[in-house]
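Record 1 of the preview.
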Amino acid sequence: MLGYTQYREPTVRLLAAAVGVYGISALVLLINATLAGLLGQWVRGVDGTSSRRDAWFSIAVAGVAVLLTFGYARAIWRDPTGGPAVRVGLLQGNIEQAVKWDQRFQVATLETYERLGRRVAAERPALIVWPETAVPFFLRREPELGPRVGRYVADTGVPMLIGSPDTGPDGRLYNTAFLVGTDGRILDRYDKRHLVPFGEYVPLQRVFFFLDKLVTGIGDFGRGRKATVFEGRVPRSPS
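->
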């Protein structure tokens, strides 16, 4: 999406907290369409009261959008960057969705992330982050592979944030991120609150009972109820 092009622009990317990538994409489209329209009028030499009115209206709308963007970034939200540098390793196994939840591929999937994690751990980051639902099993409940993940994290000596499905006290499935410490124990958890419609759940399921999720998975996820701030000492990255 167009909005992803603004990931290096802190003033613009902060809008994602309010409108998501769709809103940022609309902003990029609005600004560029306004500039393209003005350029087109100048090249064609179009004149007249109506054309000038349309041009000024486009400029006004784009200007208001830019002012709102800067106002949101400066007055309402603060960019959290600027503190001490922290080196974080990010893993992406590119596991095909068609085989992700197939039990026959569980070990192969885990081995993929173990291999990637060892390469990253050699650079001694402060934290290694796996994707959401990276492990295709219940990390806390799988009797063999769950403890294997804990031993693996302990062997690397780097804390890891690992995505895994999990069940809550209410018996529902949750898309969970577990923080695993350097001793291999689970320190804390976060249950995803903003779920993807038709990917992680089917909205208005009683009405759309005939629809299945577009993404093959293990069932509808429940919504997390609270934000989690993971606590721990984070060493500063070497300069």
